[in-house]
Design a protein that fits this description.
heterodimer; A: 24% strand; globular; B: mainly alpha; 24 helices; binds adenosine-5'-diphosphate; binds magnesium ion
């Protein structure tokens, strides 16, 4: 029960009922060669909503989330992000990408740049900010993710948890409307998972629209507005955390939950 | 800005900044005494002992053979000594020699300042220096005993060997933590070498090529025209090092480094002009055509690019830059100067790339500066290549020997490098046409022997040139070298490009970078780091390959040693002596380059992530 209370206090005062749809997927399908990785995926995500995507490994979670900023291209269906339809038009893609931040499982920081430069590079060259302003923003973002003293180090000198927080700061520096997380804590040692999850919770609290693939059930219960369960490239079930963890309707969901809980 | 300073890469490598302060030192391994070492490494069992004895005997025999060749009274070493000027610069007129010294002095000045800026000095343990000296002394003693010296020479050399070994022995037992800066050591060595020019009677040799060539061979120290300039050169280097260390702390270090790198790249162009300009060079064309064209493109291009790098320009910009590209292609349909065509095309590429580098005022101004810099280099190169009075070869050639070897090597490196990177990018690009052209080019060049390409360029290409275009042979073979090396460098860079993980590409794409930005800021810097070791290997190979110039009859270092000097009536049979000297020079330079590259590798932190 206590968990639900914290959850409601985090999800707090957002008026999701009247919020606009910001990500719309309609019948999205994707094949790798002959193998169908996404099968007719349809879902909408509202502004300020926090959606957690669950599912067994290989169920297409990464593929789906990567389609949303077009790191992968879907072959059928439509994806609209903040009113822009993803197509082969390069300008649309660049526009969408600068509004959608992404955090990867393996961090993917730029190893040849300092932490500060990792964060300020894209604002300077993509958003065309003056350098001084971008560096100031980098400092305040580092403060926000709790590592202001690491600005002049290189990624290789940081711990995994610190690296992932820099990666979050790097994505936030573009002032995105949506943040995508693909298993952000899976590559971390247990003692570092919490520091990253805390940053993500703070982000959720600040009203960021988030789509999170994770295996952290605690995080899902506490922070998610909606849980989407995928298997075999399909969305099997969508529901609130209460619904999902207490009385799921689908057999496959029950099976999955029984395996991991 | 001050914060950025401490982020310089060499900062990371100091382990103390990472380790907790009170970490324990690893236990010391007791050093083996020399007898123990011998026993453990050379005489550990019977078979090893036999091998050791046999190979020592073989090495001694080889050294003895070499020494008796070198010190055979039949050897004409004076052929090399007398012809030193010929070997270095060939027919460069003596009264113009100041130009060469000024150029060399400027390069050494840059070297000194750069060494200070990149903090090349290390501290070396004095006991380590002692061990080195001991080894050198022992080697001299060995050589003296093996060489067929006269009694007097033997005594002198034995004394020298004992002196060096003794100094080494004393230093070896110096306090363990006493160090000396490697710069002090280096300049001390050079100081001794140059001092010896003033003191030791090397003899004064010279080949005076008047109508009836005269050979000068006097006892005494070397000529004033040798020892004085070299002394000045050493002084310039040392002073500039101190100057560099002084200003290093006064100005923004990264800016200073950028300025130095630019100067390194650009100055040889102007020095070359200084060295090679024919005394009666026609400057009329320069003022009437070349400079006005340069000014026109600099100004008009800058204005255009300033406007195009405005972030809000949008669609209009793309239309205009495409239009410039079409104008560039169209220039080939009409009669006009080649330089105009090339510059228009380059301007079009700059215009097309403008959105990538657009931004606030400083970024836009920086982009125009890059444009003007490119103009300076391009206009200069085109002028130089189109000016027949620079570097005339062969016949009434102006310069040759080691100077021409260095020159061709330098231009090959400076131009093959960017070309190689471009080829590698094209070969890995998404556009099939780029891929195809680049792959064909690379595979073709790599499938043809270098000597074939050289012959083709020196003999065939001048025949195909359109009327009015003139390519000196030196320029032609330099171009041949450039495309050959570019093809090989491209493969090295491609290896580096492939080593950049997919995650890096995706991370760059995910923050909205365009393809050009991703390549320029993320992929290339990482790829080049990986490619440094194979590229340095390639550079060293290139230096040695310049010897092929001798085969196509360019008066390079090797050609003079092999063919020109033995052609002088006095030195008919001196080929072997000259070749030995030439190989020694090549050996020293290649060894130095490979040592330097090992340090560069450490600097860029290969293997560290
Ligand atoms: N680039 C690819 N090429 C071929 N198959 C792929 C590729 N990426 C993913 N797949 C396949 O698609 C399926 C879904 O993968 P993914 O989206 O990564 O699953 P999840 O993230 O849920 O573990 C898997 O079976 C995987 O093998
Ligand atoms: Mg996955």
């Amino acid at each position: 029960m206590t968990e639900n209370e914290t959850a409601s206090s985090i999800r707090g005062d957002r008026d999701l009922a009247n919020a606009q749809d910001i990500i719309v997927c309609e019948g999205v399908s994707k094949w790798f060669g002959d193998f169908q990785a996404l099968n007719n995926v349809s879902a909408t995500i509202k502004e300020q909503e926090v959606v957690v995507v669950l599912g067994p490994s290989g169920s297409g979670k990464s593929t789906w989330i990567r389609c949303i900023n077009r790191l992968e291209q879907h072959q059928e269906g439509r994806i609209m992000v903040d009113g822009v339809e993803l197509s082969n038009d390069l300008r649309n893609i660049e526009k969408v990408r600068s509004e959608v931040g992404m955090v990867f499982q393996m961090f993917n920081l730029f190893p040849h740049l300092t932490v500060r430069d990792n964060i300020s590079l894209a604002p300077i060259w993509v958003r065309k900010k003056p350098r001084a302003e971008a560096e100031e923003q980098a400092s305040s973002l580092l403060e926000r993710v709790g590592i202001p003293e690491q600005a002049d180090k290189f990624p290789g000198q940081l711990s995994g948890g610190q690296q992932q927080r820099v990666a979050i700061a790097r994505a936030l520096a573009m002032e995105p409307k949506i943040m995508l997380f693909d298993e952000p804590t899976s590559a971390l040692d247990p003692e570092m998972i919490k520091e990253v999850l805390d940053v993500m919770k703070e982000l959720a609290l600040s009203g960021m629209t988030m789509m999170v693939v994770t295996h952290e059930m605690g995080f899902a219960k506490e922070v998610a507005d909606k849980i989407m369960f995928m298997e075999g490239g399909q969305i099997v079930e969508i529901g609130t955390p209460e619904h999902f963890f207490t009385n799921p309707t689908e057999e496959r969901t029950k099976l999955f939950l029984s395996q991991i809980l | 800005m001050n914060l950025k300073k401490s982020s310089s890469p060499n900062q990371i490598k100091t382990p103390s900044s990472i380790e907790p302060p009170n970490s324990q030192l690893p236990p010391k391994v007791a050093a083996l005494s020399s007898t123990e070492w011998l026993k453990a490494n050379l005489f550990s069992n019977t078979f090893n002992s036999i091998l050791t004895i046999l190979s020592t005997a073989a090495i001694l025999l080889i050294i003895r053979g070499l020494l008796s060749f070198i010190f055979n009274p039949l050897r004409q070493w004076s052929a090399t000594a007398t012809n030193m000027r010929l070997l270095m610069t060939q027919a460069y007129p003596e009264h113009q020699y100041a130009r060469i010294w000024v150029s060399l002095g400027f390069l050494l000045f840059l070297t000194g300042v750069s060494l200070a800026f990149w903090r090349a000095a290390r501290s070396v343990l004095i006991s380590q220096v002692g061990k080195r000296l001991l080894a050198i002394g022992a080697f001299i003693l060995l050589v003296t005993l093996l060489a067929p010296f006269s009694d007097r020479a033997t005594i002198i050399w034995l004394a020298i060997g004992v002196f060096i070994a003794g100094t080494g022995f004393l230093l070896k037992s110096a306090q363990e933590d006493k160090t000396i800066s490697s710069m002090t050591l280096l300049s001390g060595t050079f100081l001794l070498a140059i001092l010896s020019l003033w003191v030791i009677p090397y003899g004064h040799h010279s080949y005076i090529s008047t109508r009836t060539p005269k050979i000068l061979a006097e006892p005494g120290t070397v000529a004033m025209t040798t020892k004085l300039p070299w002394t000045i050169m050493l002084a310039v280097t040392i002073c500039s090092y101190f100057l560099g260390s002084l200003i290093r702390d006064k100005i923004d270090e990264s800016k200073g480094k950028a300025l130095l790198s630019m100067t390194w790249l650009i100055s040889p162009l102007f020095l070359l002009f200084l060295v090679l300009r024919d005394p009666d060079f026609d400057t009329g064309h320069l003022f009437s055509t070349d400079i006005p064209i340069f000014l026109f493109f600099s100004i008009v291009g800058s204005l255009l690019l300033l406007w195009l790098t405005n972030p809000d320009i949008g669609e209009k910009g793309r239309v205009i830059s495409t239009a410039v590209l079409f104008v560039g292609f169209a220039t080939f349909l009409f009669q006009m100067l080649m330089i105009v065509r090339i510059l228009t095309l380059v301007l079009a590429f700059f215009a097309l790339a403008a959105p990538t580098f657009s931004g606030q005022k400083p970024a836009r101004i920086r982009y125009t500066k890059v444009w003007i810099g490119t103009m300076v280099i391009l206009c200069w190169l085109i002028t130089a290549i189109n000016t027949p009075s620079t570097a005339k070869v062969p016949g009434d050639f102006f310069i040759g020997g080691f100077a021409i070897t260095l020159m061709i090597f330098f231009f090959t490196m400076v131009l093959a490098f960017p070309l190689g990177v471009l080829l590698a990018l094209a070969r890995t690009s998404k556009f099939p046409i780029f891929r195809m052209v680049s792959t064909t080019f690379i595979e073709f060049i790599r499938g043809v022997p270098l000597i074939t390409i050289l012959i083709f360029f020196s003999v065939m290409v001048p025949l195909f040139l359109p009327d009015g275009m003139d390519l000196t042979e030196i320029a032609a073979v330099t171009i041949a070298f450039i495309i050959f090396e570019a093809a090989y460098l491209a493969e090295n860079v491609r290896g580096g490009l492939q080593s950049v993980t997919r995650g890096q590409h995706e991370a760059a794409e995910a923050v909205g970078m365009t393809n050009a930005q991703k390549t320029f800021f993320i992929v290339l810097p990482q790829a080049l780091r990986v490619a440094i070791p194979p590229m340095v290997g390639q550079i060293i190979a290139t230096f040695k390959e310049t010897g092929l110039l001798a085969i196509i009859g360019i008066f390079d270092f090797l050609y003079i040693a092999r063919s020109v000097i033995p052609g002088q009536t006095e030195y008919m049979g001196s080929t072997r002596e000259n070749l030995l000297f030439v190989s020694l020079v090549y050996l020293v330079i290649c060894f130095a380059m490979s040592k330097a590259s090992q340090r560069v590798e450490k600097r860029v932190g290969l293997g560290e992530r």
